[in-house]
Design brief:
The complex is a heterotrimer of chains A (about 300), B (about 350) and C (about 400). By secondary structure, chain B is mainly α. Chain B has 15 helices and 4 strands. Chain C contains 13 helices and 12 strands.
């Protein structure tokens, strides 16, 4: 029996197109971790709020899709910075989010996630909403073997590359980016050097939440927008961040792609009903045998 | 406050007669509770008490690995699920109603087996803790816990989405434990025994080893403590509690299990109980479990009218209270009590040393 | 410390007991447990409360007011059972309405059977609910075992027998897939051409669609909850599967998010449900008008119609029952209400056919609604439109082993 390469190509392409979305969210998670030593368990809700902000901007306010994307990123960044300033700042004052038995930030993150989801129910309702976007200017691709890649997926891939290069440029080649990296490396020394550390922390958080929002707005036309969308994305994004390695930005995107391909192959060749387990499995295996991931810096152990 | 220390003195006096005396008296005092409840109030409160006892078992168990030993685990609900589903599957009749697997074992056999299976699962959940700490361990355990739930959700033999139904209640001869009151005696006994053993662990050499690991892993290993062995032991012990709680949950009337009894929301609720009660404090788990169960029950129908639509605000309040608790009261109620008691004892001892000056309070 | 704990618990218990509403003789107490936070959950819970309020305002039941308590069970069985226990043992209700999710209704049937409280089910389709032999349960919606037969007959005769199945892992869809498969095998002797069991909230069906595309099937059955189904439909078109391949939905296709999210992809999709907004009868048109005005619903689905029929049947039964409504008559009143519901025969309301119950604790007696409607979407999007393709009333025995 000849091996069906055509199907395999299809599954890989599908994995890549969904994987880049995981990667964008993972970028934010990685940024928060390397900058603030926090694993942010409420990040999925930022993704969700971003999607809803984009939806409201595009449908109710009526701006074109690209404007809605940028608008949602800004609004979610503000939301994230507010949450960080009001709630998380008190915990991280001790540095690294360490409180009773090292779990304060984790528990706070879970609580914040529940609170945000229910706040969203309040504002947006529980119904799933369609996100119609006019993407006629984006080409749709067809790969050999009759594999269709609709416009929304192509746009996602383009935007994710743009975001990653933009972030990379910002961090490596601008003064503010340098300040961000200094704060990530050592807050006390950065402070002594005259850098406004609290401002940088807010900036890092805002950037990360903006990235999550972008992922949400991009996913909207692909899937629809619903208050519960955050949780599952969070787990896949964690897997992506772990596989790529916390602290490595290209690692986040590549990790996302790997998770996407892995779960699609697993669903196709092993069992589709266990699809989410494959992402968890990859997460656990990488954590057990190579915690620093593929490209990451040395695994930190603070909470 | 004087009242509290007098009670503490009374209990110490009793304990000096026989170690178990305060426990026996407590047990005797709890025995007539169902009758008091159904006579003066209503029998629903017994059901509430039963569920509190299950959560007490869970919270006290979680406290062993999280509070005593300091290992971050967010997958505890998966162990609860394993205990429940194992005992259910073992005790269901074969060719069951829902197409689920069944072995027809008596409940008194299936519960211990379920506890053993869960203990073994606890060992597996604990393996990541050998290499990981903090948030990494949280992620790994979360992944494991969720994988357990998803596996149950897609496996018809384990109930899948229709759930496991008509799980038999425990029975002795012709007496079946299928009423609130009869089940109360089962779970209350289990909870009390669980609390007692938690104290024993805390005061033993094992407990000291756990706390040493929590404070500083490297110093502990330098002092000759086998860190890996004790970490795994902590997980296994807490898994035993979770397995017992799960099995008792499965057989509680009406005997139904579904995979969405074991989601992350339930895990977060459990975390709330432990944090509210006080991490690291045995009574913390008990207080947290009782307070959260009762609070949840009383606020269930709390609705806020927003534009003529009734909105249930309880989950929002629940999430916010978790955040605020961690920020402002990280040691929980139990921690606060402990601080107060410690102050009292310190004052008392210093007065004894200095020779009885006027007490102030 | 330990004593403090017990004192504390005792104080709380006292508070709880005092807070518990005393049973007020003279009121008919109805407890409702349903999933409040969902697409329509809030709205039709609201509708049930509004209708009960309307009954009270026009004089109640023979002068007695109905006191209704609404509780959220979040579609979780442990919370649903806790609600049922609280309503039955603390609030001392005469009648329980619940629940929306099959996984919650299933255990509650055991609770009401043991406690002797009549239970009316507003919206659960899992066929096992009425197969437990409980004398106290009455199902208003159409049981899942009927849907499979109607679907299969229409599909086999009009579409073809080579069907691909996409089955999500939620309780309703698993049942729908199983019923359809059974009926297709019984009527036409065929097995599914392709079967994919996906997760409950699956978002990515592309790999399945790719495989199906190369198989030349006559139709694709998508059994999933509303937004999951919508995604599958959209992705079936994105993958390039042509319009000639008919998309078939399970009964959740009747929920509004399906055409709203799927948009054009919903056009041509057909499914079986218990009520069609495109129904021509005057009562249906009035109902559509009412839900649009009161709750902003563009076109009500069978969740709404079944909840409405439930309240009407409840009203009839309560009026016919011989109720004393004293402290001591609780058990008698519950039995009287049960018998009154059991004697409802030929109720004609929003349901597409008559609803009849009888006293025996069998599914034939307790699945009162046996008429399934075959509905197709003629237009998708926010202002979706439907048409009624067929209306079939099944035999009471249909679909039982």
């Amino acid at each position: 029996m000849g091996f069906d390469f055509n199907s395999l190509l299809a599954f890989i392409i599908f994995g890549v197109t969904i994987g880049v979305v995981y990667g964008i969210v993972a970028l934010g998670i990685s940024l928060i971790y390397s900058g603030l030593d926090i694993v942010h368990f409420a990040h999925g809700e930022m993704y969700m709020f971003g999607a809803f902000f984009g939806l409201v901007l595009a449908h109710n306010v009526g701006v074109p899709y690209p404007v809605a994307l940028i608008g949602a990123m800004i609004l979610t960044a503000i939301l994230g910075m507010a949450v960080e300033r009001v709630f998380y700042r008190r915990l991280t004052r001790a540095g690294g989010g360490y409180t009773v038995a090292g779990m304060g930030m984790i528990i706070c993150g879970f609580g914040m996630s529940v609170a945000l989801v229910n706040a969203a129910y309040f504002f947006f309702g529980a119904e799933a909403e369609p996100f119609r976007a006019n993407l006629d200017y984006i080409p749709r691709l067809t790969f050999p073997g009759d594999i269709n890649v609709p416009e929304s997926y192509v746009l996602t891939a383009i935007i994710s590359v743009l975001l990653m290069t933009g972030l990379h440029y910002f961090l490596r080649h601008t003064k503010t980016g340098l300040a961000v990296r200094a704060v990530a490396h050592n807050k006390d020394i950065a402070y002594l050097m005259g850098i406004n550390v609290p401002l940088m922390i807010s900036l890092i958080f805002g950037l990360a939440c903006g990235l999550a929002a972008a992922a949400g707005v991009l996913i909207g036309p692909m899937q629809s927008v619903q208050v519960e969308m955050g949780y599952l994305m969070l787990m896949k994004a964690f897997a992506a961040a772990v596989v790529g390695g916390f602290g490595s930005l290209p690692g986040a995107i590549l990790g996302g792609i790997m998770v996407g391909i892995f779960e699609n192959l697993g669903a196709a060749y092993i069992s589709a009903s266990h699809k989410d387990i494959y992402a968890f499995l990859l997460l656990i295996l990488v954590l057990m045998f190579r915690p620093s991931g593929l490209f990451g810096v040395e695994a930190k152990v603070k909470a | 406050m004087v009242f509290l220390s007098r009670i503490a003195d009374l209990i110490d006096a009793l304990a000096s007669r026989h170690r178990l005396l305060p426990w026996l008296i407590a047990y005797l005092m709890l025995l007539p509770l169902p009758f008091i409840m159904s006579t003066f109030f209503n029998s629903y409160l017994i059901d509430l008490a039963n569920r509190s006892c299950l959560f007490i078992l869970l919270a006290v168990g979680l406290n062993i690995v999280k509070g005593f030993c300091g290992q971050v685990t967010v997958g505890h609900i998966g162990l609860y699920a394993i205990g429940a589903v194992t005992s259910a599957v073992l005790s269901l009749e074969p060719g069951g109603f829902g197409g689920a697997l069944g072995f027809g074992l008596p409940v008194w056999v299936s519960i211990p087996i379920a506890v053993l299976v869960t203990a073994f699962a606890g060992l597996i959940v604990g393996l990541p803790s050998v290499r990981l700490e903090g948030a990494y361990l949280a992620l790994a355990t979360l992944g494991l816990g969720e994988s357990v739930r998803i596996f149950i959700a897609v496996t018809p033999a384990l109930g899948s989405s229709t759930g496991l139904m008509m799980i038999p209640a425990p029975s002795i001869g012709s007496f079946v434990f299928d009423s609130f009151t009869s089940y109360y005696y089962l779970v209350m006994t289990a909870a009390l025994v669980g609390i007692y053993f938690s104290f024993s662990i805390l005061r033993s050499a094992t407990g000291r080893a756990f706390q040493a690991i929590r404070e500083d892993t490297i110093a502990a290993s330098v002092n000759g403590i086998n860190v890996i062995k004790y970490k795994l032991l902590a997980f296994v012990l807490s898994a035993i509690y979770a397995g017992l709680a799960g099995a008792l949950f499965a057989h509680m009337p009406p005997g139904y299990l579904h995979h969405n009894n074991f989601t992350v929301i339930e895990m977060v609720t459990l975390l709330l109980m432990v944090v509210l009660g006080g991490i690291g404090n045995v009574w913390g788990g008990v207080i947290g479990a009782i307070v959260v169960t009762i609070a949840y029950d009383q606020t269930k129908d709390l609705v806020v009218y927003f534009m003529d639509r009734p909105i249930v605000i309880q989950p929002l309040v629940f999430g916010l209270s978790m955040v605020l608790l961690v920020l402002f009261m990280p040691r929980g109620i139990g921690g606060w009590f402990e601080g107060v008691l410690r102050n009292r004892r310190f004052i008392k001892r210093s007065e004894e040393k200095l020779g009885g000056t006027a007490r102030n309070s | 410390m330990k004593l403090m704990n017990k004192v504390f618990a005792g104080l709380v218990a006292t508070g709880v007991g005092l807070a518990a509403t005393a049973a007020f003789a003279g009121d008919i107490r109805v407890g409702i447990t349903m999933r409040m936070v969902s697409e329509n959950g809030q709205a039709y819970g609201q509708m049930v409360m509004d209708e009960i309020k309307a009954i009270n305002e026009s004089g109640g039941i023979n002068g007695n007011m109905i006191k209704a308590t609404l509780m959220n069970d979040e579609c979780k069985s442990d919370k649903g059972v806790a609600n049922a226990n609280k309503l039955i043992f603390q609030e001392n209700i005469h009648l329980l309405i619940g629940s929306t999710c099959s996984s919650v209704s299933l255990p509650i049937v055991d609770v009401t059977a043991k406690a002797g409280v009549p239970q009316m089910i507003p919206h659960s389709t899992n066929s096992k609910i009425t197969q437990k032999g409980s004398e106290w349960v009455f199902r208003i919606p159409v049981s899942g075992r009927y849907y499979g037969g109607v679907n299969a007959k229409y599909v086999g005769e009009n579409i073809g027998t080579k069907i691909a199945y996409i089955c999500a892992a939620d309780a309703a869809s698993v049942g729908d897939c199983a019923n359809m498969e059974k009926q297709m095998r019984a009527r036409f002797g065929v097995d599914p051409a392709y079967r994919a069991d996906v997760q409950e909230k699956e978002v990515d069906f592309r790999s399945h669609m790719q495989k199906i595309k190369s198989m030349n099937v006559d139709g694709i059955l998508v059994a999933a909850l509303a937004e999951t189904m919508a995604r599958a439909l959209i992705q079936s078109y994105e993958a390039g599967i042509s319009e000639d391949v008919r998309r078939i939905g399970s009964s959740s296709a009747s929920n509004a998010p399906v055409p709203k999210i799927a948009g054009d992809a919903a056009k041509g999709v057909f499914f079986t449900a218990a009520y069609a907004a495109a129904d021509n009868r005057p009562i249906a048109k009035l109902f559509n008008e009412m839900t649009r005005k009161r709750y902003g619903i563009h076109a009500p689905d069978h969740d709404f119609s079944q909840a409405y029929d439930l309240v009407r049947i409840m009203e009839i039964a309560l009026n016919n029952a011989d109720l004393k409504l004293e402290q001591w008559s609780l058990a008698n009143d519950r039995t009287a209400i049960r018998d009154a519901i059991a004697s409802v025969e030929g109720y004609e309301g929003l349901a597409s056919g008559p609803i009849s119950f009888c006293a025996a604790p069998t599914p034939q007696c307790r699945d009162g609604n046996r008429t399934a409607v075959l509905i197709g979407y003629t237009k998708g999007g926010e202002n979706f439109e439907t048409e009624v393709l067929a209306r079939v009333t099944m035999e009471p025995d249909f679909g039982l082993e």
